[in-house]
UniProtKB/TrEMBL annotation:
Gene3D superfamilies: Adenine nucleotide alpha hydrolases-like domains (2.30.30.280), HUPs (3.40.50.620), Translation factors (2.40.30.10). It comes from Leifsonia williamsii. Residues 283-357 form the tRNA-specific 2-thiouridylase MnmA-like C-terminal domain. The active site is at C101 (nucleophile), C199 (cysteine persulfide intermediate). It is an enzyme of class 2 (transferase). The keyword Protease does not apply. This is tRNA-specific 2-thiouridylase MnmA. Residues 209-273 form the tRNA-specific 2-thiouridylase MnmA-like central domain. The gene is mnmA.
């Protein structure tokens, strides 16, 4: 096959590209220039997609012996990921930009261009596996190394995208083995730190970054009964489950800490309360997709597991499609779920689908 290897400049994508070559594919490497500030340099292990990463990717491609290109996707990235991030926070939701990047950049814009150029598949260094069933249908599954499993952030992929996706690291027992393989291949990225945090906020100061773009506006911090406890300088700076930075100035009547329970952007208020009020008995979202074939009868409740964060443990649940929403009821309450987060549904190791959470139902009524 003719394969386009997305090379971030990290060790995982470099080894994935090398394995694709060894499997006999005709491989071309490409680095996505996503930053609108091309002079941006990496800070420690924060961020990705910088000039330094591009140079690391080129060195890896040279060692592997494949053609290498840099494609400028910065405008598309700004519109589909950065601007979406700002809009979601402004609406009181907590988005996951990595999900949007996989959905709209790596497996939409990139795949679309790859297919137009005659490529058969896009290869990435994600830790996930694709399994083909007896009828030839492709399914997305967890990686063999659950500690590094990245199937959660790939939950947005559709059947059409899975048909052209390749994850050579899915069966690798550990990240240590990938680094050892990179060293054996002579790849200089063998010991390069993993990137973390939000790539377009490399200093990690999400609140400050949002304040510069959304602005500040004083609003009230309320308890669940509507009593005013204090003030803030912008509801967009808060997210459900947050404990620090409330600046209320005095303890609750029972002396226990308070957490953000709700963000109301319309009237610029933040609602706080006890930790137990963060327990959620039901989540639902209308923006759902299936990763491969959907359930035979999605309207009939089916057992599954739900995961609401990339590194969270899956929780047994019952799900169904009702009134245009994917409705999920966990067997035990989920804690600190915010609208805008992504809920990924699993059946065993298989990723069945996902939804962006629009609403939640508390297990502890006010």
């Amino acid at each position: 096959m003719k394969v386009l290897a997305a090379m971030s400049g990290g060790v995982d994508s470099a080894v994935a590209a090398a394995r694709a070559v060894e499997a006999g594919h005709d491989v071309v490497g490409v680095h996505l220039a996503l930053s609108r500030m091309p002079g941006t340099l990496r800070t420690g292990s924060r961020g990705c997609c910088t000039i330094e990463d591009s140079m690391d990717a080129q060195r890896a491609a040279n060692v592997i012996g494949i053609p290498y290109y840099v494609w400028d996707f910065s405008e598309r990235f700004k519109l589909d990921v950065v601007d979406d991030f700002i809009a979601e926070y402004s609406a009181g939701r907590t988005p996951n930009p990595c999900m949007r990047c996989n959905e709209r950049i790596k497996f939409a814009a990139l795949l679309e261009k790859a297919l137009d150029l005659g490529f058969d598949a896009v290869c990435t260094g994600h830790y996930a596996a694709i399994v083909t069933d007896a009828d030839g249908n492709r399914e997305l599954h967890r990686a063999s190394d659950w500690a590094k499993d990245q199937s959660y952030v790939l939950g947005v992929l559709t059947a059409e995208q899975l048909a052209h996706a390749m994850f050579p690291l899915g069966a690798t027992p550990s990240k240590a083995e990938v680094r050892a393989e990179a060293a054996a291949r002579g790849l200089s990225v063998a010991n390069k730190p993993d990137s973390h945090d939000i790539c377009f906020i490399p200093d990690g100061d999400t609140r400050g970054w949002l304040a510069e773009r959304v602005g500040t506006a004083t609003g009230d911090i309320l308890d669940r009964d509507g009593n005013r406890l204090g003030s803030h300088e912008g509801a967009h700076a808060y997210t459900v489950g947050q404990r620090k930075g409330l600046n209320i100035g005095y303890p609750s009547p029972d002396g226990r800490p308070r957490f953000v329970l709700e963000v109301r952007p319309v009237d610029n208020t933040v609602v706080v309360g006890p930790k137990e009020a963060l327990d959620i008995a039901e989540i639902a979202g209308s923006r759902f997709t299936w990763a491969g074939l959907p359930p035979a009868d999605a309207a009939t409740p089916f057992t599954c597991e739900v995961q609401i964060r990339a590194h969270a443990d899956p929780v047994p649940a019952v799900a169904c499609v009702r009134d245009g929403e994917l409705l999920i009821r966990p067997d035990v309450p989920l804690n600190g779920v915010a609208p805008g987060q992504t809920a990924v549904v699993y059946v065993g190791t298989r990723v069945l689908g996902q939804t962006t959470i629009d609403r939640t139902v508390s297990a502890v009524p006010a």
